[in-house]
Amino acid sequence: MNYLVTGGSGFIGSHLIEKLLRNGHSVINIDNFDNFYDYQVKIKNTLESIGKNSDFEFSDKETDIPRLASLAHSDQYSLYWQDIRNKKDLENIFKNHPIDMVIHLAALAGVRPSIERPLEYEEVNVRGTMNLWELCKDFNIKKFICASSSSVYGNNEKIPFAETDNVDNPISPYAATKKSGEVIGHVYHNLYHIDIIQLRFFTVYGPRQRPDLAIHKFTKLISENQEIPFYGDGNTARDYTYIDDIIDGITKSIHYLEQHSGVYEILNLGENQVITLSEMVATIEKALGKTASKKILPMQPGDVTKTNADITKAKDLIGYKPVTNFQNGIKKFVEWFLRKRH
């Protein structure tokens, strides 16, 4: 099969591409290597995902990414440095490659930055996604997986969160753009018969996690004996999901789409195990053998107090079955972090 993966040099995308290539599929990776965090991290992700030696000599972004694309190119893999807001350039990619399915993981991420740059989040997460659906319509591509987010639930009072819950009350622009993607996706499904699965990811962590996210950031700061920013009283809680379980959920969604038609589904992909902020820090401390120094700060606007996924539907529909509990997942992450650092 020929898969187009957007955001394929990011955390989740690079793991997915690694699995698709290992299973003998062909992949077109579209990533804009944006400045949200160091582009060199994404280059390393890309090299790992395609099984290349990571000894890459860096110079500057304008030179490095084209060199990476050339190094990575094969009959099975193509990399494009491309912004999904640019529909014309995207169209050239669709013209040049046969595509069986689009797996759309690219997005401007982060709740707090979306409050500062809401219009940019709308441009990327809504308009960029619509560009892909327009091209699927134009090129008769009927299979589409889209990354949504647990943030669409806002401060949902019903626990655990189910796909049938009302999600009309997001509390950040990021969450609102993800809800918009779900709604607009249904339009393209209805009008153009594009089969779509929207995956609501619940706080994904593991090797290659973005360095700005809490688990990675806290691990780095604690290991360096620096203060960690600790928001609130430690009782905020998340349904943390290990990367291998997320990739299993995506690949099972791919198989389901390939075997069924007339599909429009929204699925929670979580671990169904809720961990408080205090428990998360304690687990990292234990894995590192160090004690954290905490800088207590007030709760941040846009942050939800708790997430908890009801994964019954994903279990029943695609056979989703997460197997990595939080303690083992953190142990694996810390081992990766320490190995990468040395």
Automatic annotation (TrEMBL):
<protein>
    <submittedName>
        <fullName>NAD-dependent epimerase/dehydratase family protein</fullName>
    </submittedName>
</protein>
<dbReference type="Pfam" id="PF16363">
    <property type="entry name" value="GDP_Man_Dehyd"/>
</dbReference>
<keyword id="KW-0520">NAD</keyword>
<dbReference type="InterPro" id="IPR016040">
    <property type="entry name" value="NAD(P)-bd_dom"/>
</dbReference>
<feature type="domain" description="NAD(P)-binding">
    <location>
        <begin position="4"/>
        <end position="332"/>
    </location>
</feature>
<dbReference type="InterPro" id="IPR036291">
    <property type="entry name" value="NAD(P)-bd_dom_sf"/>
</dbReference>
